[in-house]
Design goal:
By secondary structure, the protein is an alpha/beta fold. The chain is built from 10 helices and 12 strands.
Amino acid sequence: MNLSIHLDTAFNHTVVESVKDSRIIPAIEARNLDISYGDFLAVQDVDLKIHRQKISALIGPSGCGKSTVLRAFNRMNDLIPIARTKGEVLFHGQNIYQEGVDPVELRKHIGMVFQKPNPFPKSIYENIAWGARINGFRGKKSHMDDLVEEALRGAALWDEVKDKLQDSGLSLSGGQQQRLCIARTIAVRPDIILMDEPCSALDPISTLKIEELMKDLSDDYTIIIVTHNMQQAARVSDFTAFFTLTEDRAGILMEYGSTTELFTNPKQQVTEDYITGRFG
């Protein structure tokens, strides 16, 4: 796989030639993206440029293809045998769907946090360390200790677990488990973090912590979140993409722009109808 990327041998840290820290070139871009499940066209003709080191929210009614588009950004749809993708998704200028691109390698750079927390049935420490090892970490034990602490601090979890790192990750509360999964994701230092309704199974206090964490992480990472909670999209995101359905039930991107503009002055009537609760 060639994404013009070099990987630091100790921390698997991504360094991108010529585009590092660029705010002009999109973090990732979909062009004429169609996604089908068998004969059913689930997503139709999506063009979407995601801004670097910002939070972008994907909103819209159930079944409009939000999660399908999200999964297209790191080829998770490949795991569904009947899924077919047409068009391009450009990451550092390369179409991730072209022949020769290794999706496993790609997912080191575009991590994903799922709706339901899914820590490994291992210790809190090993949840971070094991994930780092399988993604190429080759440092000393002391370096691993530092990496685990750094990841847990980055996920705002260190102070809560530093004295019980050998306890099972499954012993944590739901909100803590989700932050552990975020820590596991950032331990390999991806460019982009995808989040598929990461707060839908959490209580309001845990949800607030995750939202605050997303804001902090966006200083260093590009974050794309799917949410059914429009208040959450309004609170945390910098940009919002509104998806809706055609008469044939295909998901289409209706409107995309700054969150403030989309929520206060939407360009499309259907967008206004959705955010004001007239349908959805």
